[in-house]
## 1
Amino acid sequence: MSDAIMYEKIGDIAVLAANNPPVNALGLAVRQGLIDGIERAEKDGAKAVLIYGEGRTFFAGADIREFGKPPAEPFLPDVCTRIEASPLIVVSALHGTALGGGLEIALGSHYRIAVPKARMGLPEVLIGIMPGAGGTQRLPRLIGIDKSLDVITSGRQVGAQEALEMGIIDKIAEGTPREIGLAYAQELIDAAAPRRATSEMPNPAPVDFDALYDAVLKKARGQLAPAVAVRGVQASSELPFAEGMKRERELFMELMATDQREGLIHAFFSERAVGKLPELDGVAPRDLNAIGVIGGGTMGAGIATSALLSGLKVTLLEMNDKAAEAARGRIAGNLQGALKRGKISAAQFTDLTETALNVATDYAALADADLVIEAVFEDMGVKKDVFTKLDAVCKPGAVLASNTSYLDVNEIAACTSRPGDVIGLHFFSPAHVMKLLEIVVADKTALDVVATGFALGKKMSKVSVRAGVCDGFIGNRILSKYRTCADYMILDGASPYQIDAALEKFGFAMGPYAVADLAGLDIGWAVRKRKRAEGMDPRARDFTYADKLCEDGNFGQKTGKGYYDYAAGAKARVPNPEVLPLIEADRATQGITPRAFTDEEILRRYMASMVNEAARVVGEGIAKRPLDVDVTLLYGYGFPRYRGGPMKWADMQGLPALLADIKSWAKDDPYFWEPAPLLEQLVAEGRNFDDLNKDAS
Ligand code: T1G
């Protein structure tokens, strides 16, 4: 027998304990160990079998690392079927997260018990597949179609209490999984409880599966897995168990072969890889208990909220009492939202707003802070003034962070006597909601300060990505390029509405012009004015229609009108009729004859501009690996997760074709479409971005 499943006989009970850290994934050795264990128990005179996991969890699912490789027997569905077929009573005792194949093992068992904190679910759709070891056939027989569809199409984790109410488990008990499992198995033996096979339960009553399929497909914004999973569940209602299992397998294999599965699994591993930097190995972060936030606008209040929710003490500094009270109100409003959603209790709300939060107007209040984040107006002079004052009051070793979204962190650091303690922490608005944190490492930033940035991100449940210093770091620098590409397409004949529609069809939550309206058109206006004042490269194209829109007081959602008119509400946007005439006038002045764009060309240009700039960002070392770009775009810019991120998407398209497109467009606009050296190099070497990820791991 393999060590992955440890066998022991205690009285009448054969105990199969999984031992495959960190999450007891159901790799080959575990699957084989389960089969061997059941067979041994049957020969060993046992009356019952207990299955549980050592360490932090019951099985967290199939071993995702085996996907894409040739499958090896025994397959997981057969393991579940073998467990269920045993004449002995089989009990699964759940703790930690019983997910995917893990829950399917439990469903193949005859009885299920869990500790109160256990969570369970079938999260396969989140990685682009569907349950493939009987989950779509056994769960509906156990709890009915509606509840199964909720669990399977959302991929959500269900807590033990809810699972008990739904009928997924039979019992909850306090103790270790081994203790509660042994006690329950003995209780069942003593009561002469029958073997109880889920697959032998009657087919669940049908629902209108076609309507559900359509509704789920629409809600998933182009992602296929949840809708395909509906068809799997449908089979549980319409077919005998064995045929239903075959149908599940076919659908499962179909999804396994998709780019969406590849993209989602890339996203899963990439978001875990971003925090793993060889230079931080063994580097301890500095203490992090109390932090300071300077500026209580939307951004500062969001950062403070996120910090409070993660258990940190926060001192928020504002210019005067009135502004300080307004900031307190903003933070309380954010926390009220958390209270309403049940994320915190009323007592916690009171504690966070009255004890953990302190608002102040004097820099001296920051003297004891372990880390201070400034979120003041985006202007170098203002930032330098703040950092000079911080340098004077903060204790030695305090981390001094700027939330700048594009300014030079080296220049900010240089105005202090301790540049090693200075770092960029770029949050995304609203900071208590958005998961991305760019950790901007300046030339002199000390390694333990970088480690502290990552520790803060982890505490705040953010996905943190390391970035180097440049205008816009990873995300905003790439954004600026693909936005410009879209703006040029408008000059040449596309409309903002066609561009938004094409990109939303691709899977972006919102197109770039709807996003601009949400963020405020005044932001882009200020950037354009700054760039013109600094002197634009004469080869860069320019345009005025967007400025005119702002000059007329249209800043987007906050003024009720921008590219769209929001008179009927934010979601009921309609094109603003003033926009197209402004664009036409601009084209006429510049002597441009508009031409038609297909949605496909819009997408290819937009994505190529994004990938080309991303290749520069990686080539220059601003992002250490292509996967850092992918995670940045996924978590900060609404890039569709099932496409894996722009670099993964580019790899799946094929880099040679992308480079050929760029070179063909460069004939008309060599300045904008200059190919990134790294892209040319990869194509010449016949390699792709994922090869660079592998080189770095
Ligand atoms: N396979 C392989 N490795 C896994 C894994 C898995 N299923 N789950 C986690 N890991 C690794 C992870 O990469 C990390 O590695 C370490 O474990 C700790 O994870 C037939 C088809 C379980 C809730 O989708 O949701 O069953 O980075 O850092 O925050 O129907 O991991 O340390 O090297 O995330 O405590 C369904 C995915 C599979 C579960 C733990 N199961 N995992 O979270 O730790 S499909 C899933 C998670 C399936 C059947 C099918 C979470 C977690 P490293 P972590 P965590």
Note: The first strand starts at residue 5 and ends at 10.
## 2
Amino acid sequence: MRIAIYPGTFDPVTYGHLDVIARAADIFDKVIVGVAENSAKRPLFTDLERVQMIRAVVRKHPNVSVDSFQGLLVSYAKRKKATAIVRGLRAVSDFEYEFQMALTNRKLARGITTVFLMPHEEYTYLNSSIVREIALFGGDVSTFVPPEVRRMLARKVRAMNARA
Ligand code: PNS
């Protein structure tokens, strides 16, 4: 069985991520979406919120599961018996960071290969930080994220505004 991990911060998950998940689900027997718990990015959503959010939008893929992990990605991949790490590659600007990560992970774990998938060109410009910024300033994110994620973003922004 070919198992792949699709790791990321997913803060929040976007239509671009979902496009990559759908492509990976077509190629691999099993895809585990791995939400990184210890991201240096200080996410807007907690680990649990990001896991729940992704679970809510990948239901139509029976071979996709969602989980979170701490520590090194390759250690997690080995525990899950994955032989591939999937990453989305949108534009040349992604390349340097992805290249460094892929080669480092290969040095750390020879048996795990990073596979790059290109999301639909419609999502080339899309990333989570743009979506967060639009949501925080009250803009419409409905063309970037599914309705479940839009609702979670709206709730988060309301809670933040109520605290301020
Ligand atoms: O969505 P992101 O923020 O680009 O995902 C980055 C992520 C989570 C895949 C990367 O930071 C990661 O793998 N973190 C786990 C710690 C790790 O293994 N670091 C070494 C990577 S070379």
Note: The chain has one domain: 3-125.
## 3
Amino acid sequence: AMTHTTAQPERSSRAATARPTVTLTGVQPTGDLHLGNYIGAIRPLADLAGDLTRDVYVFVADLHALNSRPDPAVLRERSRRLVAALLACGLDRPNVHVYRQSRVPAVAGMAALLNNVTAKGLLNRAHAYKAAVAANVAAGRDPDHGVNMGLYSYPVLMAADILALDADEVPVGADQAQHLEIAVDLAQQFSRSYRPGVLREPRALIAQTTATLPGLDGRKMSKSYGNAISLMAEPDDMRKQIRRIVTDSTPPAQPKDPDTCTLVALLRAFADPGTVAAVEERYRTGGIGYGEVKARLADAIDAHVAPMRNRYQRLLTDPAELDARLARGEQNACRRADRTLARTVVAMGL
Ligand code: TRP
């Protein structure tokens, strides 16, 4: 099922060529994936990759992660776990290329070149930087307090990720829409300043809000809200987390509205349609308690996640296997990015 809408119309030239559609996205290694990441981003990406006319490039944005200055050992470990999780969640397939951004030097090279077609004023207006400035001003500090160039030029590096890999389409959450606009902007600026046909303008695939999952407290599941259920938790821990989901105090016998219940929303994401329909019916007629729904939800999630968790754990205990997958992905990504960088360098007169 497609969970993305296209923000721009399909380019008509595409249909005429047999070249695969190149789909690219990056994930920051900020901590372990939760169920919301899986339903909102990873599973939709695996669905896109199920279409074999696509070549999918998915990378760990480890260079981006540096702007918050994580401990080196922590960053390295998070990157590894993220690679293992991506591979375990349906992205270990021939038309998917998993890589670490830092292992594709042409990306950093592209960012250095793009700096010269990036207006400083454009970056002044970027949401993340503006939010940091607003927080500083509100606290009576220097506007740029704690802001490093990694944070400030984050959108340039992201444009480099996309443009270097010559991507056609970029699936992202709504929070990344401005970053995609900046990437398109820089490609257009480059075409005007040098020549067209060197850098491809990417198309944004913005995730629909229906793909967002509620967390323990009913708000959108998010690491920053502290309401997340971790994707790769051990079964006992997973059940414990599910029992903590907040529900109201309607007694089992009384009818309930399935459309406002966090448990049903989660069940819809993981259980088969028959199970969901049966539970929804018992909500409307009355006669089902939240404890029972939680048990069914835990069963459904476990059935779905168990094979992925097993694969994840095997990959983490088999570094050679993980490294082999990365070597292939990184070689393919480098080949592609090197080609784009070579064109760009020449177009700029180097
Ligand atoms: N900024 C993205 C995020 O925080 C991650 C990212 C980095 C990315 N580079 C990218 C996403 C390129 C898509 C394309 O979610």
Note: DSSP finds 15 helices and six strands in the chain.
## 4
Amino acid sequence: MTEPTPEAWSRVDRYFAETLVGHDTALEETIARQNSAGLPAIEVAPVNGKLLHLLARMSGARRVLEIGTLGGYSTIWLARGIPADGRIITIEAEPDNAAVARANLNRAGVADRVEILIGRAADVLPTLAGQAPFDFVFIDADKESNTLYLDWAARLGHPGTVIVVDNVGRGGRVADPDTTDEQVIGTQRGLELLGSDPRFDATAIQTLDAKGWDGIAVALVL
Ligand code: DHB
Ligand code: MG
């Protein structure tokens, strides 16, 4: 039997991606342009982009909130998972990232259903109160603020809203009770909130993919 070495699980990830995700010019150009613009290569892996897309479709989402746009890679996957008259609000703190994302969304043909709000999510989220609630929320920004973002996801959602939190495994460091890494601590606090707050029911799975050993949490707003 093959041992789960990085070589082995990378081979499995490539096999899954080739077999089930395939190739897409807009998505591949999004990565290329994001890289050449100097953005960090921390977008979700293709298999996880496809997962977000499928979860949005499975949940019948029409209104999606994304916290952390980066270059728009996950935004494109999500935008393709909602109806043409659906809406994605995506929040990005870095104006330069937002400009890259805007161009990528245009090239992918989904800009009409995506609104990029530039600013710190902590400042932008309160401005969304009073809008129609969101059916799906993807949290993928500064991990220190995950509890804040989860609280807003519950407030801006409705019973049945699906929440996905990226990067909850952090190379295994999430299970270190003595960590001093603020991002890991923020991730832990977020998971603890999901496990204890009666507004949520949730689970998390580890992921081994093109981005290494990490994980995602999936939650339902009750
Ligand atoms: C980091 C952030 C992410 O959202 C991610 O997917 C990978 C890494 C980071 O800040 O290091
Ligand atoms: Mg991420």
Note: Strands lie at 63-67, 87-92, 114-118, 136-139, 162-166, 200-209, 212-221.
